[in-house]
């Protein structure tokens, strides 16, 4: 019988840094168990993540040439290389065109297993080659459980509307807490419909949710970056839905940053405030606010009375964050607040003792970093999985507060921002605040438990081996 003491695993994540990076984090954990990894990566993108590779002797990057698709900026490889989300379908189309190269690589490299996510055609390529396929999902089981099976993609007449997504499936855990708001459902409608023609053609015109459904159905096994201690009921829900192995990689806590040096500018700024007093706000790598929401958010921080550091892209229609600031804002907040338009060392900022509150869009990376920090959490979810992460943190785990928004258009006001921030920062003054703080401490301790991560990585590694038997 074949020796399965260690495996050769190929990784083929969706061409977005929010996916490539967590695929590399799980590769690091698997390499610690001795598994060899061939990591398929768009050629120029490799330099952006090289520094996360903790086991270069076991993790080899395999460059993938990304074909040009009309309408994409020259050289664009991932979603972070395009100026707006309307161009994401073109990235999808470019990924589809790598299929012949991926097939040759799989044939030549002969891995035991391939991990993939949105490239729904991987099982079809891999099966004849005797390679097992794992749909590795960096978005939560909760999100997948809520979204799966809502639309019959084989029925061309299937009607898709906001109502399709408004309520949880019948037997869904915590169903009333999970129901989406009307403004949130629209995004799911968009993600259910094929992108418009002129989006690269071919299978690039399969909707994102359709892709997800095919991947879930056709793969040999499902695997999630998740743990039962946090998402138990939702994991059990998926186990009931899919009669195939469901593996858990655990929280997959990224290794600490190599550099321990926070830029001096931020050391000086944060160092001038007392412990736990500063609000840090960042909305991930993809979200650009409208100008009025950009201003409401900042006015909310101003009203809160706390010092703040807001890391935001210039809003739509503005070249810089400075030109978009509310009238008289700089004079009023003075040294108390900074609005920064560039990239920042988020993990180091969150570790700074002066930072007491993290206002997050609930991207999966930021949620984990927030839970691992000592900060209180305020959630302003932006899309897809963010909504569910926000409900999970706010309503199920009761470990943070979500900013209230208008049902119809999702608009949040300065007052709703102020209210959420004050609720967590003055936790000692209210029963709800005290409960949230206690829960946040509980989940931080849980995630930092040494045996939690090692249990999941060991178990994940073992169960992957059984897929070969
Ligand atoms: C497809 C989508 O990718 C999304 O990525 P996004 O960048 O929005 O958010 P994070 O996962 O928090 O990832 C953002 C990452 O960037 C880091 N960072 C951010 C801003 C900054 O100034 N400096 C930093 O170091 C941050 O620390 C985090 O690790 C999400 O996954 C989402 O769940 C998924 O659906």
Summarize the SSE layout with pairings.
Layout: E1 8-12, H1 17-32, E2 36-42, H2 46-49, E3 59-64, H3 88-96, H4 99-109, E4 113-116, H5 122-126, E5 132-137, H6 141-147, H7 162-166, H8 175-178, H9 182-192, H10 208-218, E6 221-224, H11 228-241, E7 246-248, H12 264-271, E8 278-282, H13 291-304, E9 308-311, H14 329-333, E10 337-340, H15 346-351, E11 355-360, H16 364-372, E12 376-379, H17 384-396, E13 401-402, H18 414-425, H19 431-448, H20 450-466
Parallel strand pairs: 1-2, 1-4, 2-3, 4-5, 5-6, 6-7, 8-9, 8-11, 9-10, 11-12, 12-13
Helix pairs in contact: 6-11, 13-18
The protein binds the ligand C[C@@H]1O[C@H](OP(=O)(O)OP(=O)(O)OC[C@H]2O[C@@H](n3ccc(=O)[nH]c3=O)[C@H](O)[C@@H]2O)[C@H](O)[C@H](O)[C@H]1O.
Computed CA radius of gyration, to the nearest angstrom: 22 Å
Count helical runs: 20
The best one-word shape is: globular
Give the strand tally. Answer: 13
Helix content: 40-55%
Strand sequence of the main sheet, in spatial order? 3-2-1-4-5-6-7
Question: Which small-molecule ligands are present, each listed once?
Answer: ligand AWU
Q: Quick one: biggest sheet?
A: 7 strands, parallel
Provide the β-strand percentage band.
Answer: 5-15%
What's the end-to-end separation, in Å? 9 Å
Given helix and strand content, the structural type is alpha/beta
Unreliable runs, pLDDT <50, ≥5 residues?
Answer: none
């Amino acid at each position: 019988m074949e020796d399965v003491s260690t495996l050769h695993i190929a990784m083929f994540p969706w061409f977005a840094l929010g996916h490539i990076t967590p695929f590399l984090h799980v590769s690091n954990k698997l390499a610690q168990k001795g598994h060899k990894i061939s990591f398929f990566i768009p050629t120029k993108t490799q330099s952006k993540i090289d520094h996360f590779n903790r086991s270069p002797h076991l993790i080899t990057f395999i460059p993938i040439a990304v074909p040009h698709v009309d309408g994409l900026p020259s050289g664009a490889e991932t979603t972070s290389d395009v100026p707006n989300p309307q161009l994401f379908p073109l990235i999808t189309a470019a990924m589809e065109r790598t299929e012949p190269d991926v097939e040759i690589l799989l044939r030549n490299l002969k891995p035991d297993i391939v991990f993939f996510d949105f490239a729904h055609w991987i099982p079809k390529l891999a099966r004849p080659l005797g390679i097992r396929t794992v749909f590795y999902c960096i978005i939560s089981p909760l999100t997948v459980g809520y979204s799966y099976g809502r639309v019959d993609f084989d029925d061309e007449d299937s009607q898709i509307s906001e109502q399709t997504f408004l309520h949880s499936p019948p037997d869904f855990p915590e169903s009333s807490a999970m129901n989406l708001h009307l403004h949130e459902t629209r995004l799911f409608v968009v993600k259910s419909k094929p992108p418009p023609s002129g989006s690269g053609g071919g299978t690039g015109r399969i909707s994102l949710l359709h892709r997800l459904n095919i991947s879930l159905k056709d793969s040999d096994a499902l695997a999630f970056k998740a743990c039962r201690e946090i998402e138990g009921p939702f994991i059990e829900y998926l186990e009931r839905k899919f009669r195939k192995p469901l593996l858990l990689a655990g929280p997959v806590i990224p290794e600490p940053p190599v550099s321990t040096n926070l830029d001096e500018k931020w050391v000086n700024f944060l160092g001038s405030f007392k412990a736990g007093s500063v609000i840090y706000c960042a909305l991930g790598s993809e979200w650009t606010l409208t100008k009025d929401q950009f201003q409401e958010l900042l006015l909310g921080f101003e009203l809160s009375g706390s010092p703040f550091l807001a890391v935001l892209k210039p809003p739509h229609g503005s070249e810089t964050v400075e030109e978009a600031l509310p009238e008289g804002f700089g004079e009023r907040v003075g040294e108390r607040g900074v609005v920064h338009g560039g990239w920042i060392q988020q993990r180091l900022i969150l570790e700074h003792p002066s930072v007491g509150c993290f206002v997050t869009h609930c991207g999966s990376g930021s949620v984990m970093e927030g839970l691992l920090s000592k900060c209180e959490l305020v959630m302003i979810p932006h899309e897809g999985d963010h909504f569910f992460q926000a409900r999970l943190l706010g309503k199920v785990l009761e470990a943070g507060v979500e900013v209230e928004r208008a049902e119809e258009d999702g608009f949040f006001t300065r007052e709703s921002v102020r209210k959420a921030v004050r609720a967590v920062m003055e936790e000692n003054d209210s029963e709800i605040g005290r409960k949230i703080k206690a829960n946040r401490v509980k989940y931080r301790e849980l995630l930092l438990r040494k045996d939690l991560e090692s249990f999941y990585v060991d178990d994940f590694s073992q169960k992957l081996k059984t897929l070969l038997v």
